[in-house]
Design goal:
With 136 residues, the chain is mainly β. It has one domain. The chain has one helix and seven strands. It has a four-stranded antiparallel sheet with strand order 1-2-3-4, with no helix packed on it. The radius of gyration is 17 Å and the shape is globular.
């Protein structure tokens, strides 16, 4: 992005929020992460990660918790994720997207939250093509 400031304040791990998950088949999900200024869509494959159901990590009394433990130290495979879209690359798009739908033609519709007109941008619907996101 020559000459433009990237709208991506997600340097801190607790900045991004997960707004929505969308199943696209089997163990595949699209995750919508956003901050106040940017939206990222990740494709994740749950089938390639370890299932922690009925392990010590599934027990609420386990200390330290999984969230407090480095993945390598926990000896589990984390969920691989692939970035499919980053609104920071599109400065005219409202950043705080909170909804998505996969359309019949394979395009992806995104809508932002205008916070009832109190803060943020006006409601905007954006249709994306060519993201590589599809039903599996």
């Amino acid at each position: 992005m020559t000459g433009l400031e990237r709208r991506d304040p997600s340097a801190k791990q607790n900045d991004p929020r997960i707004s929505e998950l969308m199943a696209v088949g089997g163990d595949w999900l699209i995750v919508l992460e956003h901050t106040e200024r940017t939206t990222k869509l990740y494709e994740i494959d749950l089938g390639r990660a370890d299932n922690i159901l009925d392990t010590p990590w599934d027990d609420p009394t386990t200390r330290p918790t999984l969230e407090q433990t480095q993945v390598q130290a926990a000896h589990i495979k984390d969920v691989p994720k692939t970035l499919r879209f980053d609104s920071a690359d599109f400065p005219d798009m409202v950043g705080k997207t909170e909804g998505m739908a996969l359309l019949d033609d394979g395009s992806l519709a995104l809508i932002n939250d205008d916070d009832f007109g109190i803060t943020g941008g006006r409601t905007q619907i954006v249709v994306l093509r060519g993201t590589g996101i599809a039903q599996r």
